[in-house]
Specification:
Blueprint lengths: L10 H8 L5 H13 L1 H12 L3 H4 L2 H8 L6 H8 L5 H12 L4 H32 L8
């Protein structure tokens, strides 16, 4: 049996998309649809223009736009190598897994890619340091 068709993208979904309150999967679905449909992009712009002014300047809207609860990129790097306080690691885990901050998840994915790319060169560098300083260790003869 075929999977059911995804629900249509209505104005409420577009408002949630603009507010970044959709799940990651739903955000990706809307973005794919927007890339493929000029009429949907126009509807998105209409929804953007029709938002009441009060929602643009609420404390929550300002907080989300300024990403005030997002950890810095350096903190995300420390999170990856577990070099932060346990409470801070717990907060970042909450931010990534419960809040599902798309911005921080993308930042973390980028850092993981960089760490993976740097790993071989880091090991090579360590081996070179060891080889160049091995004579300082002396011999056990």
């Amino acid at each position: 049996m075929a999977d059911p068709a995804p629900p249509a993208i209505d104005d409420e979904t577009l408002r949630a998309y603009l507010a970044e309150t959709l799940s990651g999967e739903e955000m990706a679905r809307v973005e794919r649809a927007l890339r493929g449909s000029a009429s949907l992009r126009q509807r998105l712009e209409d929804v953007r223009q029709d938002r009441p002014e009060s929602t643009l300047h609420t404390l929550g809207a300002i907080w989300r736009r300024a990403r005030l609860s997002c950890p810095e990129r350096e903190e995300l790097g420390g999170y990856l190598i577990e070099a932060l306080d346990p409470e801070h690691i717990e907060y970042i885990t909450f931010h990534l897994d419960v809040v599902e901050c798309a911005f921080c998840r993308a930042n973390l994915a980028d850092l993981r890619g960089q760490f993976a790319a740097d790993a071989p060169s880091s090991q090579t560098r360590q081996r070179r340091y060891f080889q160049s300083s091995r004579h300082l260790l002396g011999s056990d003869d």
